[in-house]
Amino acid sequence: MDSPLVQIEQLHKSFNSLQVLNGVDITIHRGESIVVIGQSGCGKSVLIKHVIRLLEPDKGQVVFDGQDLAQLDTKHITAVRRRIGMLFQSSALFDSLTVAENVGLGLKESRRYHEEQIKEIVREKLDMVGLTGAEQKSPAELSGGMRKRAGLARAIADNPEVLLYDEPTTGLDPITADMIDDMIVELNRKLNVTSIAVTHDMKSAFKIASRIVMLYQGKVEVDGTPDEIRNSDNPVVRQFITGSAAGPIHAR
Question: Are 42 and 216 in contact (CB under 8 A)?
Fold first, then answer.
């Protein structure tokens, strides 16, 4: 098998006295679609923020394509981030910009494209997410699902190798959530990207994942295929995927 694209090794992260990650090990190869599950506050979003070095490890390391992210200077970490697109939980659209301006923002700031190229790329990416003709709308004019799709168009604007999804279906009705899941699967296939998603939505996880990793008490509790997770006899896993109040996991 090819060398890992992302190698997370003994990752520790605390905030004041709260230990969030306590020795997480995950290996991700090119083309995989990894979904990280776990209850709210278990460190899922903290984990993916380390993949683009929005956070620094207390201990351990995150290696991207052979490079220890903590050792990179500004120039080289910027180059790594250009290879990664991210869909934020709230979509993170700027209300003062049009949809087109939001989608093209990263392209414009990179200074690698002229204006007509940006317009063409924005049209192409909006078409890919089913938002043809929405260029001049403001984020306030969009439904929750449309905002997610606009955020997704921005995430894929620069043809990234890796896509990060932070709770991609949170706040959406079941039908819209399923549509977003279908879109994620289709984009993964069409763009041939490596995906890392974090979610507590098991329907979504089973649909988009080639592998599922569960975090519990700051560590990896289980790492397996969707079928292995679905059929696991681990009581922590069983309780989480069935949503039962009874079991070793306590409600927060």
Answer: yes
Contacts of 14 by beta carbon, 8 Å cutoff, 6+ apart: 20, 58
Distance CA 51, CA 65 (A): 11
When pLDDT is cut at 50, 70 and 90, the band that residue 1 belongs to is: low
- Cβ(196)–Cβ(36) under 8 Å? yes
Asked whether the CA dihedral 64, 66, 70, 73 is positive or negative, the reply is negative
Q: Residue 51 pairs with which residues in a beta bridge?
A: none
The pLDDT, as a whole number, for residue 122 is 94
Is residue 103 within 8 Å of 122, Cβ to Cβ?
A: yes
**pLDDT, tens only, 217-242:** 999 999 999 999 999 999 999 999 99
Asked whether 57 and 63 are in contact (CB, 8 A), the reply is: no
What phi and psi values does residue 15 have, to the nearest 5 degrees?
A: -125, 110
- Over residues 170-221, the pLDDT tens digits come to 889 999 999 999 999 999 999 999 999 999 899 999 999 999 999 999 999 9
> For residue 192, what is the DSSP state?
T
Look at domain 6-242 and name its CATH class.
Answer: alpha beta
- Residue type for 133, please? G
Burial of residue 111 (CB within 10 Å: 0-12, 13-18, 19+) is exposed
Q: Where are the chain's structural domains?
A: 6-242
Helix H or strand E encompassing 15: strand 6-15
Query: Which residue is listed with tokens 């605390």?
Result: 14
